[in-house]
Amino acid sequence: MKLLALDTSTEACSAALFIDGEISECFEITPKAHTKLLLPMIESLLAQAELKLTQLDALAFGCGPGSFTGLRIATGVVQGLAFGADLPVVPVSTLAALAQNFSQDLSFVAMDARIGEIFWGVYQKNPDGFVELMGEEAVLPVSQIQFPLQSAIGIGSGWRVYETELVEKTHGLVSQIESDALPHSSLIAKLGVYGFEQGRGIAAEFAQPVYLRDKVAQTERERAAAKMDKSLALMDNAP
Question: Which residue, 64, 148, 189, 234, is the most exposed by fewest CB within 10 angstroms?
Fold first, then answer.
């Protein structure tokens, strides 16, 4: 199994190459240089492995939630690579990638979403050691989060920004907090391979960012519709 993974959903930019269980990764914290670094990272990984993009089985990317700009970068790059090499794409949740990095069975993942809200997801490890979502991911104030009454680890920047509120809300169920954790493409790769084996690979055109905020998602749909209308108009007016 050969899979390339990438992630630009936060201030971290990373790419990873999974080859038969072995993972190589390029990772750098660079809030405003994702567009400059991502493609060189990918080229470097493929060159070191002496592989061409067409020799891969699939691609994976951190589909969100996260930075709006970062998610659009990752989506655009993975779609371009997938179209060019005719490869399937496996979208991987940013929150799932954060949870996958730790050994605890249950994770309360909270990323700072600004304007008084967090991106929230509860993940549990399955018998194969991969995290699975319990309930739904959401963007909401801390006061509205939902969670099982079980001991868990708290992961993500939301636990740094809203630590007092989150600890109080979760009734002391969180025994460990990892507020500086960032998603890595190596984790996207692991979950991407697992997802691919579970039949979750999709065609490039269906690879879309997950914002969780309805207004942003609606704007993206409106843009896509506008592009389609423009294309149809050009076809209608063609000689």
Answer: 234
Q: How far apart are CA 146 and CA 158, in angstroms?
A: 15
pLDDT in tens, 160-215: 999 999 999 999 999 999 999 999 999 999 999 999 999 999 999 999 999 998 64
Q: What is the DSSP letter of 143?
A: G
What does the DSSP 8-state code read for residue 146?
-
Q: What are residue 125's phi and psi, to 5 degrees? A: -75, 135
Distance CA 230, CA 235 (A): 9
2-95+183-237 fold? Nucleotidyltransferase; domain 5 (3.30.420)
Q: Which residues contact 84 (CB under 8 A, 6 or more apart)?
A: 53
In this structure, how many other beta carbons lie within 10 angstroms of the beta carbon of residue 96? 24
Collapsing DSSP to helix, strand or coil, 49 comes out as helix
What lies within 8 Å, CB to CB, of 156 at 6+ separation is 95, 98, 109, 110, 111, 112, 119, 178, 179, 181
- Measured CA to CA, the distance from residue 64 to residue 124 in angstroms comes to 18
- Predicted model pTM: 0.88
Q: What is the CATH number of domain 102-178?
A: 3.30.420.40
Q: Look up tokens 């929230």; give the residue.
A: 120
Structure tokens at 196: 């691919």
Residues, the chain, total? Answer: 239
